[in-house]
Design goal:
about 350 residues; globular; 2 domains; seven-stranded parallel β-sheet; single chain; six-stranded parallel β-sheet; Rossmann fold
Length: about 350
């Protein structure tokens, strides 16, 4: 069996695509991963062998004039996608959203190749809303997404959002040792997503610097804020481990008592996998995808949501202090995660892909 996986350039697209790639290869499926030749994507995929890159395109945002100027890039990427389809002759094409997947899925549909798309967020992106009408199957991370797509119910299935194989709960003491942190001390995980989040980093540090209780921090900052944050925590006397990017997030999630983070689709899936209580600060742009993701956990009472407009050091400090003084509240939030949250989305999605061939 041959499968093409095509993805956009953000971590929210790439990480679940990689998880599916790993799962399909473990089942002896021949897989090709296709991604746009953008710096962000190439950086995340630099250690993945055999990736095929196509011409990137920035159409869809900005002025009409800019979109018109991007037409040649879109057509070049579409031509490269056609050549890949003809050369590889896949049985199934899997798309993970973004403009860069449109042409590949269209060629697949045109040549009667089976197609499946995966939507990571509650609110489907524009590319997937278009592709939903053509795809043979639509896999969803959230059941709430189905009503936002104008398609027959039997075309959709809820698999969850695929995570890497290593993303499973570790022993808490082992995780604390791995991170160089103390046992029995309240541990905060702060993360702004794959690229970091400057305002979130700055606000959370200011809040923690004013806390009176004892705690320790794992802070995933992104490259830009790494050095200043590391120095600031040291000067404030706060026990911390600061990383610009951390590959072994399973240890960070397993060590933490509470997360303060954005609400990207991958982050939400990881919080669910580890049943970790969270304070979510959704990124306010990109059609408020993150706000709708965050509302799912808020509705289950697994997380609190602070909107960007309401974000302040005082508000973060107030919430952290409340959790520090009420550990029972944390346990209640942990137990509010449904058992289905820990299911293996990669295996479920791989099963749907392989079923299309039968």
């Amino acid at each position: 069996m041959r499968v093409i996986i095509v993805t956009g350039s953000s971590g929210g697209h790439i990480f679940p695509a990689l998880a599916l790639l790993e799962e399909l290869k473990s089942r002896s499926v021949e897989v090709k991963l296709v991604a746009p030749a953008k710096e962000s994507a190439m950086s995340m995929l630099k250690e993945v062998p055999g990736v095929i890159y196509i011409r990137p395109c920035r159409m869809g945002s900005g002025s009409l004039g800019r979109n018109i100027r991007e037409v040649p890039s879109f057509l070049a990427g579409a031509w490269e996608s056609l050549r890949i389809i003809i050369k590889f002759r896949p049985d199934v094409v899997v798309g993970f959203g973004s403009l860069h997947t449109l042409a590949m899925l269209f060629w697949g549909w045109l040549f009667r190749v089976k197609t499946i798309i995966h939507e990571q967020n509650v609110v489907p992106g524009r590319a997937n809303r278009v592709l939903a009408k053509f795809a043979d199957k639509i896999a969803l991370s959230f059941p709430q997404t189905a009503c936002r797509l104008c398609v027959r119910g039997e075309k959709t299935c809820v698999t969850g959002n695929p995570l890497r194989r290593g993303m499973s709960r570790m022993d808490k003491k082992e995780s604390l040792d791995r991170l160089g942190l103390q046992h029995g001390k309240f541990t905060l995980l702060v993360a702004g997503g794959s690229q970091g989040a400057h305002r979130l980093n700055e606000t959370v540090y200011s809040a923690l610097a004013g806390c009176r209780e004892s705690f320790q921090v794992v802070h995933i900052s992104g490259a830009e804020d790494y050095a200043p944050l590391k120095d600031a925590y040291a000067q404030a006397g706060i026990k911390s481990m600061v990383f610009d990017f951390f590959h072994d997030m399973q240890y960070a999630y397993s060590a933490a008592d509470l997360a303060i983070c954005r609400a990207g689709a991958t982050t939400i899936a990881e919080l669910q996998r580890f049943s970790l209580p969270a304070v979510l600060v959704p990124y306010p742009f990109a059609y408020e995808h993150q706000l709708e993701n965050a509302k799912v956990l808020e509705g289950r009472r697994c997380a609190l949501v602070i909107r960007e407009d309401d974000l302040s050091a005082d508000k973060i400090r107030e919430q952290v202090m409340a959790f520090l003084l009420d550990r029972q509240r944390l346990e209640s939030m942990r137990s509010s995660y449904p058992p289905a949250a820990s299911r293996d989305a990669s295996a479920m999605l791989a099963g749907e892909v392989m079923d299309l061939k039968r």
